[in-house]
Amino acid sequence: MGFSNQWAERPSKLLTVADFCSLYRIGKTSLYREAAAGRLKLRKFGSATRIAIEDAEAWAASLPIVKGGEDEAA
What we know:
With 74 residues, this protein is an alpha+beta fold. 45% of the residues lie in helices and 20% in strands. The strands form two sheets. It has a three-stranded antiparallel sheet with strand order 1-3-2. Strands 4-5 form a two-stranded antiparallel sheet. β4 (66-67) and β5 form a beta hairpin.
């Protein structure tokens, strides 16, 4: 197995902003609002912004749970 094959077979551990928004069905404005509030970690590589899969999953798990059509926090 060559070097290029080794990396080609590995799934990415980082999501692009577009991938995150598509996966979680939210807009870019909401994503950046969540990051500004400290609820979602963003990572930078030069000008590229990425979200680690574990950070995305932690963010989703931290969202409030709604029961019976009412918000628990209300």
